[in-house]
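REQUEST FORM: STRUCTURE PREDICTION
Request ID: SP-0412
Submitted by: Lab K.M.
Chain count: 1
Length (residues): 337
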Amino acid sequence: MDLPLLWAFILAFAVLAYVVLDGFDLGIGILFPFLKRHENRDTAMNTVAPFWDGNETWLILGGGGLFAVFPLAYAVLMPALYAPIIAMLLALIFRGVAFEFRWRTVRWRGVWDLSFFAGSLVAAFAQGVSLGAIVQGIEVSGRAYGGGWFDWATPFSMMTGVAVAVGYALLGATWIVMKTEGPLNRLAARYALFLGAGTVLAIAVVSAWMPFLQPSFYSRWLTFPQILAVAPIPALVALSAWSLWKGLRNPISGRRPFLSALALFALSFAGIGISFYPNILPPALTIWQAAAPDSSLVFLLVGASVLIPLILAYMTYSYWVFRGKVIEGEGYHTHGH
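STATUS: Completed
RESULT:
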């Protein structure tokens, strides 16, 4: 059994789970200033209140898993991305504090609303910047990071930062469409149409830019016969975008817009995976070079085979228990004075 490859799939799954699950609640934070009435903000927050903490479990699994399973990749990646990763973690802490505190005050509610927005936006942007920095290639010398402090800050990584923030806002808007009714539902649907167009445009720009960053990306996406193997991905992205548009144009109550937005993310993620393989950090560090010894991977796999199904079970149960619409004035949180 190819343990490093199996672990690469497990970690990829954890990262994708984090992106789609924490993506929509970060997206709600990004939309906060545009939700006009504070009652709308309360309702939007109540749609994610039962889930937001659990969604971040996958970030711990992804980061901790990388450290344990691919220690060399972790050792190279961290110094390369200290600034955006520290910014992301501080923003997530700030946002978590704001999430709890805004329910405890009326006078300071505006401050905590702004904090929730800023924390969500910075966390989303920092994740996008980190992704862009990894895609454009990380300089490795020997078995360590060989670049400078600010190699992560390039036009491409700024573009991916904006793309992720817009995509998360789309997930947030479609989640609100699925979980609410009335004026807030219609407002979120209007935003989702614009954000959907923005997300598809961002995917197109990043996809057009990527092949010119690494020769291996170019050969995989733009040379014959490989282009035939990867052609279904852009076709499915177009189909998901059409499905999103249709879902938002028709009576807006169902899951279709949210599931279509999730499909856009999953396909983009698959595209990145296709570009990277067999590297874990392009251009030169492969999955097998970065992996821990097989004995460690087996030991970790025993733990993961117990923990991951447990996490999936409790998350599925919590989403099932809190299914259905959230009505204004009702929910997990209510205002204290």
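NOTES: The first strand starts at residue 140 and ends at 141.
Reviewed by: T.R.
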